[in-house]
Design goal:
Elements: H1 2-7, H2 11-23, H3 36-42, E1 45-50, E2 56-60, E3 64-70, H4 75-91, H5 101-119, H6 122-134, H7 141-148, H8 152-175
Parallel strand pairs: 1-3
Antiparallel strand pairs: 2-3
Length: about 180
């Protein structure tokens, strides 16, 4: 039964579950309370700032490692990039230097997806959707980004994940089968 249940999950739900598992160890009541530095610390991941134009992580055993974070990034961008690097170490814990381009792209997509669920959990996204229903003129993407302290592109990506999941649910109801549609940019 457990295997059958797992087979019918979409990748969207899987990465959301992983993010929720991480968040379950904390008691964040508002989205701006999600402290990615605290999360890194609790998982034994060191964060070091450097003056290069790139950010990368060096994995160690047991989902640990060091994240080398580009200095002087805007706070929202730093938060999103750090979350993505944390997700690399948490989910993959491997060096990408000898991996194929396809494998690297797959890992990048997975880390970005998990980071989106980590910084913008569904329980807080529900507040955004309720506000949009309540407010006749809707909610601007920049307001959503400010609410979660993430870049606008990141907020847009997270909303696309929800839209993709809804489309997949609609198709499953329509055909009585399991599946999903994902937007790939």
């Amino acid at each position: 039964m457990q295997q059958r249940k797992l087979l019918h999950k979409t990748p969207l739900e899987y990465w959301e579950e992983r993010a929720n598992h991480v968040l379950s160890h904390f008691n964040y009541q508002e989205p701006d309370e999600i402290d990615i530095y605290e999360i890194c610390y609790r998982y034994g991941i060191k964060v070091k700032h450097h003056n290069k134009d790139t950010t990368f992580s060096v994995p160690k055993e047991g989902r640990r490692g060091i994240i080398y974070l580009q200095s002087n990034l805007p706070a929202d961008e730093e938060r999103a990039i750090l979350a993505e690097e944390f997700c690399h170490l948490y989910a993959h814990a491997m060096d990408q230097l000898s991996a194929s381009k396809y494998f690297i792209e797959k890992q990048e997509n997975q880390a970005k997806r998990m980071a989106a669920y980590l910084l913008m959990p569904s329980r807080f996204m529900e507040n955004v959707y309720k506000m949009a229903e309540f407010n006749e003129i809707g909610v601007l993407i920049e307001e959503i980004a400010d609410y979660f302290v993430v870049p606008e592109e990141f907020a847009h990506y997270r909303m696309q994940l929800d839209a993709s999941r809804e489309m997949g649910r609609t198709l499953r109801r329509w055909r009585g089968e399991y599946g999903s549609i994902e937007w790939i940019e």
